[in-house]
UniProtKB/TrEMBL annotation:
Location of this chain's protein in the cell: Cytoplasm
Segments forming domain Glutamine amidotransferase type-2: 2-216
Record text on subunit structure and interactions: Homodimer.
Protein source organism: Paraburkholderia eburnea
Pfam families noted in UniProt: GATase_6, SIS
Reactions this protein catalyses: D-fructose 6-phosphate + L-glutamine = D-glucosamine 6-phosphate + L-glutamate
Domain of life: Bacteria
Keyword Transmembrane belongs to the record: no
This protein's name: Glutamine--fructose-6-phosphate aminotransferase [isomerizing]
Keywords on record: Aminotransferase, Cytoplasm, Glutamine amidotransferase, Repeat, Transferase
Chain's role: Catalyzes the first step in hexosamine metabolism, converting fructose-6P into glucosamine-6P using glutamine as a nitrogen source.
GO cellular component, one term: cytosol
Active-site residues annotated for this sequence: 2 (nucleophile), 604 (for fru-6p isomerization activity)
Gene: glmS
The UniProt record lists the keyword Ligase: no
Amino acid sequence: MCGIVGAVAQRNIVPVLIEGLRRLEYRGYDSCGVATVTAAGPQRVRSVSRVAELDEQVRTAHFEGVTGIAHTRWATHGAPTVNNAHPIFSRDALAIVHNGIIENYEALREMLRAKGYEFVSQTDTEVIAHLIHSLYKGDLFAAVREAVLQLAGAYAIGVVHKDQPHVVVGARAGSPLVVGYGEGEYFIASDALAIAGSANRVSYLEEGDVCEISLEGVRIADRAGNLVTRESRDVQAYGGYGDTVDLGPYRHYMQKEIFEQPRAISDTIPALDEAFDPVLFGENAAEVFEGIDSILILACGTSYYAGLTAKYWLETVAKIRTDVEIASEYRYRESVPNPRSLVVTISQSGETADTLAALKHAQSLGMEHTLAVCNVATSAMVRLTEFTFLTHAGREIGVASTKAFTTQLVGLFILAVTLGKLRGHVNAEQEAGYLKLLRHLPAALNGVLALEPQIIAWSEEFARKENALFLGRGLHYPIALEGALKLKEISYIHAEAYPAGELKHGPLALVTEAMPVVTVAPNDALLEKLKSNMQEVRARGGQLYVFADADTHITSEEGIHVIRMPEHYGLLSPILHVVPLQLLAYHTASARGTDVDKPRNLAKSVTVE
Ligand code: G6P
């Protein structure tokens, strides 16, 4: 992952670089740093704290410069120490920032050691620094073009050299990089958002491109070394930045985003007349959807759990066989491709490296019909797929996904009903019923959000625990998985989810009075089975914390704590039931004082495999 930003200008560029880093922190936040360059050599400030702290450091030190590069890191090679923080230097002449992983770094390091280069960090990045330094003969653009030919793996880099103090050179392969055009000043960045405001227009570099930005303008060379132009677009196309960063009355972005869900969902539900029309997914979707005989869903993390939920809907409503795979597994295993399958990738960011690679893998196996359910219209995933369903969650800042998840579920439910209609399994009455459920969803969610005070009371007990189990059945098993993921990623409490029927096959051994067992209890066909599983927990002294639909009539008693949800919400019940689990994780983490929006070791957008 990691985020990089660079700039050449005729003004002090450090505040722009720091603001860029702030906007790139979603890509990792283990450490950060900034370097400027003068004819005397590069100078840098680095921190293992957050960008806000780096900002303090540069202000106190009056650290300034007209040409610079900056980095926010998600550690891969080498611990997150100041010494491993970027920018990385080579012989006090050259500085580099790097996003990605160099796979042949060991061989390159030996080759460079033989040439007398000393390595002072544990990073793979340092080999690129020395390699470019060793090839530099007065033209940084040329040296980088030569160097990247020797690199295997994924990279986006920004480089400066003391002998060209008004030049930044960038290059990319596998990791994204954009060039930004301002008024007589130029930028590079991992994401257009980082430089929106300073740059008016941006160009996406293509695989293997190397660029040079200087006061004279921009030069781009392709992998073969030919000078090329890359189409530029108005930076506004990538959305504004300002409005979404205001926390309003909330303590954290995650809390704000949980409460934004009714709005996000209502923005995602299409207009009445096209509610379940294939055209929602793309021009000729009807024709393609009619020809498919199965679905293959590929995703990671929370998006994968959205896929697991969708499997139930697709098989129940559309009666279409659906497989769901973790993208990082699918891309490397031997599978039996079905060209009549619709490949559905689910991703908030549309940039997750494993999901993109899994998509390309499926395409390479001859599965040409692809659909992205995605929150970012300009993302690589949307560009790569035949069809798109855009969720309108708005920018999600908290690393733990909330509103992106529930809007993905809405998109996937719409897909299930659309396919069900096309395949003759949904009649007009059922369609009207599904539409009504969807339209009422934002109001129903508001009812669940009103349970926050009761959930806060529970979270105070959870904050003192080190383990928790989550149980669900059927359509709500993926919701239990998502609840456990939310709790572990932000509160650092070990949490696991099981389909309740599996309890007796192992996890019951863990159940004691000290073990809270969170139970998702909708009033569906599996309720009686679930109640039996709850008794199995009670018989072993386990403490049940149950989110029960009002019409289940499950009530609190010794060892059974109940929060009453609204009445059962039919097939869309998972969207209601995940919300209290998000709130429970949020308030538990908050009570433990963790960094809720930026949990340790994680990142929002995982652009390395
Ligand atoms: C990271 C995030 C998760 C997210 C996952 C997949 O792990 O922290 O919140 O679910 O990546 O990301 P995507 O953008 O593809 O949905």
